[in-house]
Write a structure and sequence with these properties.
With about 375 residues, the protein is α+β, with helices and mostly antiparallel strands. It has four helices and ten strands; from the N terminus they run H-H-H-E-E-E-E-E-E-E-E-E-E-H. The two termini are about 25 Å apart.
């Protein structure tokens, strides 16, 4: 397999180095870290607000459940009162029926007694009148007549007492009947009032249950959103931790990082430093790592981008200055993710691989330079 990469001329390399020397400054916090911290801060605000909302919903749920419980207890109590009233109504109606039956019996009996009493009284007065006349005219024994009169008086009093008893019973029955009707009317009224209260409570209960269902749905939805936010924050926390870890790891000067640098991409090395190009017979000043187009190209160490543009022979080229006159070059990209002046961290995305420039094979051309002189990248990259 042959490659169409041409080693850059000394003039092009010198130009890139001059650009780097003019733009370099000590790298600080990366844009990636700043963006991640800002995103985490925004997420924390959302999570705090959502938790406050969920606490409010939970409080409403507790209050609604309490109201539902109270309503259920009130409805249960009203049902018991209605049952008791219905029992009392049935008893009152049964008592009225008994009294009505008794009244009919007494009325029939009293009519008979009344007729008998009337006949007895007529006979009594008629007999008494004749006896007295006979006694006065015939001069009968006064003691015998007196005894007859006493007997007749007793009979008359008994008949009159029976009539008075009947009239008293009828009056008493009417009073009891009136009282029973009043009782039933009052019980019916109480039952209507209780039924109205129960209907109101049932409506309130339905509304409370609907509210509880809505609150439950809102709480579950909020819980899912909170879970998503917390997962997102956890993901960002890991990213931030990785960034900080890279910062700490990259705090070691570039010159002390031999054999420790992260690779710009993972792939097969198609040619190494100082290999001879079969076509030009020139030596390669870096290495070419095969990678599919669209693969993320990462910075190998902390630094600042000093060049991010197209350069003849290199295609889209990114150059990072790591201080102490160390540079790394990443060529033949399809896109560059950073701008000149941006800071980058070790392992942070820098470009997207492709095959720009004269390169016909997909991958990344990578160089390490110190004081303008090419270094063997294999010595610097982690093994």
């Amino acid at each position: 397999m042959t490659f169409a990469i041409k080693p850059p001329s000394h003039k092009r390399v010198l130009s890139a180095l001059l650009i780097g020397a003019c733009l370099w400054s000590q790298p600080g916090i990366s844009n990636e870290q700043q963006a991640t911290e800002a995103e985490i801060q925004a997420l924390e605000g959302d999570i705090k607000h959502l938790r406050k909302l969920l606490n409010s919903i939970n409080t409403q749920q507790t209050s609604t459940r309490s109201n539902i419980q109270k309503n259920e207890q009130s409805i249960h109590q009203l049902n018991n009162e209605i049952k008791a009233l219905e029992t009392r109504l049935q008893e009152g109606q049964s008592e009225v029926k008994k009294l009505a039956s008794r009244q009919q019996q007494l009325a029939a009996k009293s009519e008979t007694q009344k007729a008998q009493a009337a006949r007895s009284l007529r006979s009594l007065y008629q007999g008494l009148g004749e006896s007295r006349v006979k006694l006065l005219l015939n001069q009968e024994n006064p003691e015998s007549v007196s005894r007859q009169l006493v007997y007749l008086d007793y009979f008359q009093q008994a008949q009159l007492q029976a009539i008075r008893d009947y009239e008293h019973s009828v009056a008493e029955l009417k009073t009891l009947e009136r009282q029973q009707h009043q009782l039933i009317a009052r019980l019916d009224q109480e039952k209507a009032v209780i039924a109205t209260k129960k209907q109101t409570l049932v409506k309130q209960q339905a509304k409370q249950k609907q509210l509880l269902a809505e609150l439950g749905q809102r709480y579950r939805q909020g819980g899912r959103e909170l879970n998503q936010l917390e997962q997102e924050r956890e993901r960002l926390d890991k990213i931030l931790a990785t960034i900080i870890s890279r910062q700490r790891a990259s705090a070691v000067p570039f010159g002390s990082s031999q054999g420790k640098l992260v690779w710009p991409v993972s792939g097969k090395v198609l040619f190494n430093f100082n290999d001879q190009n079969r076509e030009t017979r020139l030596r390669w000043q870096g290495m070419f790592i095969a990678a599919e187009a669209g693969t993320t190209v990462n910075a190998v160490h902390n630094g600042r981008v000093i060049f991010a543009d197209w350069l003849s022979g290199y295609g889209l080229l990114a150059i990072v200055d790591h201080g102490d006159q160390f540079l790394t070059l990443y060529a033949h990209n399809s896109a560059i993710l950073k701008q000149e002046g941006d800071t980058v961290l070790a392992g942070e995305p820098l470009a997207i691989s492709g095959g720009s420039g004269t390169q016909q094979t997909e991958g990344v051309y990578f160089e390490v330079r110190h004081r303008g002189k090419p270094q063997n990248p294999a010595v610097w990259l982690a093994r």
